[in-house]
Specification:
This protein is of the alpha/beta class and 180 residues long. It has one domain: Nucleotidyltransferase, domain 5 (2-Layer Sandwich), CATH 3.30.420.140. It is built from six helices and six strands. Strands 1-6-5-2-3-4 form a six-stranded mixed β-sheet, with helices on both faces. Helix 1 crosses helix 6. InterPro entries: YqgF (IPR005227).
């Protein structure tokens, strides 16, 4: 795994995705990851790299990331994952305890040696619009007794979707302005 700046990553992936889609090839996708106190939240982008969907959560066993490593190894070939966007509370600062935890997970994944060629970047989770979270939690497809109807739990479980979608929206709008 190799760290790449957020804008650089998006622009290189957008070019590649457009070429693949033009040639009717399988598109590339991004993986979203948020590190939470007891589990990891995982999302995946669509092949057009303009939308994110929830994949699931992986429970955390202390500092052991073997479950997460196994999930990544399954998802990367299945969805043609090119890169990961890792949510971080203050991606520019990296000094508070949560940031250090996120950073240590990223480097633990790097140190497994199992993800050569996979790029990753950090995305500031404070950029996420609370209205988006509220809107997502009112999904009519969720049953009334679904545990994710608790707004805080819902936010945590789906946090990687918000992070990845925020990243895609931010750079998608920027790229659109550049083309205009």
């Amino acid at each position: 795994m190799k760290y790449v700046r957020p804008y650089t990553l998006y622009m290189s992936l957008e070019k590649k995705a457009i070429e693949l889609i033009k040639n009717d090839a399988i598109g590339i996708q991004l993986l979203g990851l948020n590190v939470l106190p007891h589990y990891f939240s995982i999302s995946i982008s669509n092949p057009y790299i303009d939308g994110a969907v929830h994949h699931g959560i992986v429970e955390m066993n202390g500092r052991n990331i073997s479950k997460l490593t196994n999930v990544f190894q399954t998802l990367i070939p299945k969805y043609n994952i090119e890169a990961a966007v890792i949510g971080c509370p203050d991606a520019k600062n990296m000094e508070n305890l949560e940031d250090v935890k996120v950073n240590s997970v990223a480097y633990a994944l790097c140190n497994t040696g199992k993800f050569e060629g996979l790029k990753f970047t950090y995305w500031d989770t404070t950029r996420i619009d609370s209205k988006f979270v509220e809107w997502m939690s009112k999904d009519p497809n969720l049953p009334d007794d679904h545990p994710d109807n608790n707004l805080e739990d819902f936010h945590d479980r789906f946090s990687s979707v918000y992070t990845l979608q925020s990243y895609l929206d931010h750079f998608g709008k920027m790229a659109q302005r550049k083309d205009d």
